[in-house]
Amino acid sequence: MLLDSKCALLEKPKKAKAFDLWIRLSTHERRKPIYLPVGLHEYFKERGGKLTSMVQISEDGTLRLVKEIERKDIVFSGDIALDFGMECLFVSDRGDLFGRGFYLRVKEYADRIDRIQREMQRAGKKPTESKRYVRLQSKLSGYVKSEVRRIINRVIYLYKPQRLVLEDLRGFLQRVINNFPKSVKRVLIRFGLGEIRRKLRDISEEYGIEVVYINPAYSSQACSNCGYVDKDNRRTRSEFECKLCGKRLHADVNASRNLLSRAKWSLHLRRMEQALIKQVELFSRNLFDERHKCLWSKATPVD
Ligand SMILES: [Zn+2]
Q: Distance (Å, rounded) from C-alpha 44 to C-alpha 65?
């Protein structure tokens, strides 16, 4: 059921600070409205748009407020690729790092929560009996969700891409999340993954941005400059130096560039296998180049 301002009015409270709005519901008795105090969810506050005077009431008694979200008049063009990093949440193919303090902060929260959990267990109680535990849990989930949304918003605002290229989320789980300590891992699986998925769905609905997921196999070992694949190309977690062409760059920037080229190739070729063949072709062409003479002695003839 949709109620408009004739029978439901939204009013800002004048004094009360414990909630955000009053809903004034008209009743059959004149001048005897019912006032309902309403607290707004963080997500509702952050999501832009104008609050309408409409209130939806569903049969189970749930109240919903309605926001009008304009499709922003922005021109979107080009592709942008993001790689999930371990030091920051995303690294773009243009070399920008997003969410640098994210994992540290999550770890801080997770450690505090773990400590309380252990204390409670020692005392023979359930962790949920501790108010501090419950409060921290909800703070942490709130932090993860709002950071994910803030960071993705920042990416959209900065690049205004038509297409957003990412490694598939299973890759994120196996390659990044699984490398964190247990407590952080749990949080990222419980809140992080879902929120990333939701936010990406929202941006395609809101802005019409196409989100493309790419198989990340070997994207951290392959050189985005010449195509040479070697696990020694990755010197440390963040340094990449190609053993063939000598290209040096941030390892995650290199990986996101690989995702971007794969997205471009697979768009035409449609199939990942063919995109990989393309990469091998590029590499063999480079191999016969005079500049890479030093490698020729490494080659062994095939019978
Ligand atoms: Zn190279």
A: 9
Ligand 1 centroid to Cα of residue 174, in Å, is 26
- Using only C-alpha atoms, the chain has a radius of gyration, in whole angstroms, of 26
**Range 178-197 burial, b when 16+ CB lie within 10 A, else e:** eebeebbbebbeebbbebbe
ipTM exceeding 0.85, yes/no:
yes
- 227 alpha carbon to ligand 1 midpoint, in Å? 6
Distance (Å) from CA 247 to ligand 1 centroid: 6
Strand partners, 234: 240
Q: What tokens appear for 139 in the block? A: 């703070």
Kind of pairing, strands 21-25 and 239-241? Answer: unpaired
Estimate the crossing angle of helix 102-122 against helix 131-159, to 10 degrees: 170
Ligand 1 midpoint to CA 226 (Å): 4
* Residues with Cβ–ion distance below 5 A, ligand 1: 223, 225-226, 228, 242, 244-245, 247
Q: What is the pLDDT of residues 35-71, one digit of tens each?
A: 888 888 777 777 777 787 777 777 777 777 877 776 6
pLDDT tens, position by position, 112-149: 999 999 999 999 999 899 999 999 999 999 999 999 99
What is the Å distance from ligand 1's center to 90 Cα? 23
Rounded to whole angstroms, how far apart are CA atoms 98 and 280?
31
Instruction: State in Å: Cα 187 to ligand 1 middle.
Output: 37
Element at 68 (helix H, strand E)? strand 63-68
User: How far apart are the CA of 286 and the centre of ligand 1, in A?
Assistant: 9
Which helix or strand (DSSP H or E) is residue 145 part of? helix 131-159
How far apart (Å, rounded) are the C-alpha atoms in residues 188 and 196?
Answer: 10
Centre of ligand 1 from the C-alpha of residue 239, in Å: 13
Angstrom distance (rounded) from CA 20 to CA 38: 6
Q: Tell me if 207 sits within 8 A of 72, measured CB to CB.
A: yes
